Amino acid sequence: MEVTDKGIAMLEQYVAAVRDAVGMEIPLSMDHLGHLGVKSIIRLGKAYENTLVVDGERNPWTYTDLLKQISDQSPTPILTGEDIYLKEAFTSCARDTQ
What we know:
Elements: H1 5-22, E1 29-30, H2 38-47, E2 54-56, H3 64-73, E3 78-79, H4 87-96
Parallel strand pairs: 1-2, 2-3
């Protein structure tokens, strides 16, 4: 699912309003908005560049190739792995990326 230009602008304004309310002394991050298309995730990362410290859980952690693409193109750092709850799943994914 991709976010429209209007949607990106609205989200950017919303996050900027929160940033204004809490000030720059407090680290601000955003968690899961649902799984979005890679293009939208990158566009949002660029929109949040000066407001968020970190952006989290934008696509399933198992898609390591997409996470790499996002982290390479987004100026806002991303977090992932919140959904890892069994070591077997993590070990399996780590083996597949080698």
